[in-house]
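Researcher: I'd like a structural prediction for the single chain below. Treat it as a standalone chain; there are no partners to consider.
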Amino acid sequence: MENKKRFLYNGILLTLVGISIRTVSLLFNALITRTIGAEGVGLYTIVMNVYGFAVTFATSGISLTVTRLVAAAKGEGKANDVSKILAGAVVYTLAFSIIATSVLFFGANFFAYTVLDDKRAAAALKILAPSLVPLSLVSVFSGYFVGVKRVSCNAVTQVLGQIFKICATVWLILRALPMDVEKSARMLSLGTTVTEILCFLVIFVEFLIDRRKAYKGGGADVRSVASVAVPLGVSAYIRQALLTVEHILIPKRLRVYGHSLSDSLASYGTLHGMALPMILYPMVTLSSFSGLLVPEFAERSAQKNDEAMRALASRAFGVTLIYATLASAVLFVFSEELGYVIYKSSDAGRYIAILAPVVPIMYLDHVTDSVLKGIGEQVCSMWINITDSVLSIVLVWFLIPKMGIIGYAVCIIVMEGYNFILSAIRLFSKIKFRISLTETLLYPLISALFSGALVKKLFISAGRQTDAFWLILEIIFSVCAFALMYKFILFVNDRIKILPQKCK
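Model: Treating it as a single chain, here is the predicted structure.
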């Protein structure tokens, strides 16, 4: 019971923090988008794809490794090994992050001119390089706090980090105005680097305060850390490298379709920098709880408690599907309003509507991946993700020259389905969980679509305006209507089941 209360408390805390951060981040991104334009967003996005690979190499699976090893050590009653795990993780990640920093900084011109085919990216990559060491160390301590289930420390770091990022970036951009696309990418990159350094200082101070609670033990267990982190890191390298290739190809294949460089970056920025973040926005709640599933399943797996894992998995997937169905319906029904109110872009609204139906699969896949990692199936997850990325590149190569940016949207939808099906099959072979598709998919879908459409029609009849206040009000009313209608359907369904028994 105590573990359930702590899990719920940690999940709610991370959810509230995550929603606050994601909301502010979404509004902040909307402001930045309006300031630098879709082309600026596109350039910064492809810069961040190269930076993303550097981050992957620098961290090399260390956060999940620390979480799993710390949680498993506690589950097996070897709590005194925690300090050795932490020391080993710091040594491990410093080695990788220093290499990544050097390669990104000194290879910035090569990446910009040869890989990205856009010299404007060089300065931004050099500015991002110094952020890799502090970022990797943050990953170590973040994994530790999740593993020992003291996630409030991570929450503080996330909140302060978002405040740092917004303040630093806005200040830099205001000082740089007026600016071109290249200068905007430099300012956004500088804001990111400053934020990562400050986040490291915050979480390190938190760890020093928490250290008196930490477990005693000497030495650095680099071998144990490497045994888990290296497979995770290698899979992440391959996955991120393929993702980087995929996203570098998108603007280039759009030029084959007939777009100019400016139009290609603008289209890519609208779909990937505006519509996709809106699609992922509701997932902040799931991310909070799914991250906590890793140590929960790691402990139960170490204890070989199959029944507890089955019950937890069934509950997690049932709740996820209900929530994801509601999110999908809201995004679809209000896609036009979301694109206009947040980004002042009709194209963004159109892409949100196209991607909304894949939300349930996308969110379920996220939870499935967390559970697989928790039970030690990261190698299987690795191969699924790698084949996913390879096939994505193939689809991008062939679809975009024929369909334009819509081809990329099709690629996202197809590959999300592919990834989820394979991951779910693997998980089911290990944990025989059960969910009712009628109660977790059909009923929520009917309730969500009907509620959203009804509320939207009522507000239109009342002469509502298309602005942020009315949009928020519409969504709140839709969610409330969904809850009432879903409960009513379940009540009627239960009564129908009871009646035949009474007749007997």
